[in-house]
Amino acid sequence: MLLETNGLTKYFGGLAAVSQVDMSVDGGQIVGLIGPNGAGKTTIINLISGFLRPSRGSIIFDGENITGKKSHLVAKLGIGLTFQIVPLFSEFTTLQNVVASFYISADSSLWGSIFRTSTYRKREEYILNQAEEILQLLGLDKVRDELAKNLPHGYQKMLGMARALAVKPKLLLLDEPIAGMNPDEINLALKAIEQVRSQGVTILLVEHNMVVMSICDRVIAINYGRKIAEGSPEEMKKNEDVIRAYFGGEYAT
Amino acid sequence: MLRRGFFTNKKVVKMASCAGLIILLCLAPLIMGSYSIHLAILVLMYIIITSSLRTIYISGQLSLGHAAFVGIGAYTSAILAIRLDWTPWGTILLGGLAAMVAGILIGLPFSRLRAIYFAMASLFLGIMITALIAVFPELTQSYTGLMNIPRLFGFPKEPYYYFFLGLTVLTLFVLYRIEHSRVGMTLKAVAQSHLAASSIGISESRARILALGIGCFFAGLAGAGYAHYSTLIAPTDFALMPSIYLLVYLLVGGTGSFAGPIVGAIVLVLIPYLMGGFKGFAPFFLAGALILVIFLIPQGIVSLPDRTKSWIRKLHKRRVSESAS
Q1: What is the number of structural domains in chain A?
Q2: What is the mean pLDDT of residues A29-37?
Q3: B247 min Cα distance to partner chain A (Å)
Q4: Phi/psi at B85 (nearest 5 deg)?
Q5: d(CA B127, CA B121)
Q6: Which residues on chain B are in Cβ contact (under 8 Å) with A91?
Q7: CATH of B31-324, one of 1.10.287, 1.10.3470, 3.30.70, 1.10.10
Q8: In whole angstroms, how far apart are CA A40 and each of A4, A9, A21, A179, A240?
């Protein structure tokens, strides 16, 4: 098991945004975290990635307790993250965004940067190649020298994923990876996600758009901060609690 | 910058023009009088300090107390040379290191503060350091200032000019290399989005402290060098107003490019001296320059060539469309 949460709970004031969530993600899977707006999905992602501290409960990643760890340390352990609204390095080009994201796997020394030692140059070349590979994988090579702020929305979202990949994560958290995309972009994004998984990266993705269910191995449904159901995509489509949560009581059979 | 064809023609041209410029600057004292050499030394010093301020700036920190670090360098070096009789060559380096340590110590608690809060903290730091200097009169002579600081060289000013020229070239080389490496990217990344930065494992405080350490080191070096040139330093040299002037040099020159602080320091340090009898109006001139730049060329003087080009293009377009209609 790669990721496990036990009794994960988060209060905002008196409101329990996430309440007693036990869930687990196995290595190599694509797991979907679904639920209507305001169900607490993004809060769960933020708790795992260390942007929020849990009020109660624990998070175990790869055998290590990461509850309450700071976000940059969580990233160092191998959890990549993309955001719903992508905060990009907007003054960097697409390529620079990805190159900068190799911070963990190849920290560059001050000494090397100033004197451009041969180790430094070799490492830069290596990183450049890796970055170009990631861009190709996600179909971003066409816009490699564009400033990130000038990219269309779909590309920006993909760039968010490219950056997360540069962290070389074991687990990739995708927060609404296809929100605001047009159908063509959605197809590309879903293919890219499967590509990423085929490279051995486990994926936990949050969506309220049910389209993503098609690529998920397993789906966890959340409503009002609680887990209401869990199973394969087919099971979930028939699950009454899930249908009720999405469409209201009268549509449940 | 990160392309494979590393030694493109453009790069060679750039390096050649830098080398040519340095040779010209080396020959310049042959035709300069004593007063112009003094001015040149001041300009070089301000280039170092303003560029070091920009290194801090690109990590998203607006320092309103940068002159204080110049002062730490100057006072450390001067006191060590006076009290312990150490050679200024060594104490200047120690002055830089002292400023760096001070910068890092300040960074530890304050680097978590973003935007305006860091600016406020650095503002009070600047005020505090001048007050601190006044608190230890037997060491610092308080507001009278330190006098008779050992000189680095004998009387003609030329050696000082070459000293500051060398220091400037070294500083700019190091700062340029750092900015155009992934270390520099890290600094800029933190400024652009701390969320994105921490999601890829960059520690925001570490990047900011690094920028402060580097920036303060060179500011301290320049300050220390200045102490052994002028042989006289006073707390007011490093108070709030000098810090604000540094910011004005940076903003007017342009924050977005490496050449910005260089151009800003040259233009704004020189012009008040060239105003002759109207020197008293220098503050008004600086304020006017700042306002003009903010409204007309927000990217600073360095963006003027590009600006003019686009203005001309627009004018040309308008003329074409007028003649067509």
Answers
A1: 1
A2: 88
A3: 22
A4: 65, 30
A5: 10
A6: 188, 192
A7: 1.10.3470
A8: 17, 10, 10, 16, 20
* Pairing status of strand A79-82 against strand A171-175: parallel
Regarding beta strands A218-223 and A202-207, do their DSSP bridges make them parallel or antiparallel, or are they unpaired?
unpaired
CA–CA separation, B246 and B57 (whole Å):
12
Q: Which residues of chain A are within 8 Å of residue B188 when distances are taken between CB atoms?
A: 89, 91-92
pTM of the model as a whole: 0.85
Position B8 scores a pLDDT of 62
Evaluate whether B93 touches B78 at the Cβ level (below 8 Å): no
Q: What's the CATH code of the domain at A79?
A: 3.40.50.300
> How many Å apart are CA B212 and CA B216, to the nearest integer?
6
B104 neighbors B164 (Cβ within 8 angstroms):
no
The average pLDDT across A107-125 equals: 84
> Does residue A170 fall inside a structural domain?
yes
Looking at chain A, how many residues does it have? 253
Reply yes or no on whether the pLDDT at B194 is more than 70. Answer: yes
Q: What are the structural domain ranges in chain B?
A: 31-324
Q: Do A75 and B200 touch (CB under 8 A)?
A: yes
Instruction: Say how far apart CA A222 and CA B18 lie, in whole Å.
Output: 62
Q: Residue B195 is nearest to which of A87, A96, A114, comparing CB atoms? A: A87
Quote the minimal CA–CA distance from A101 to chain B in Å: 6
Distances (CA, A) of A215 to A14, A205, A219: 36, 11, 10
DSSP notation for B79-92: HHHHHS---HHHHH
Contact B123, B65 (CB under 8 A): yes
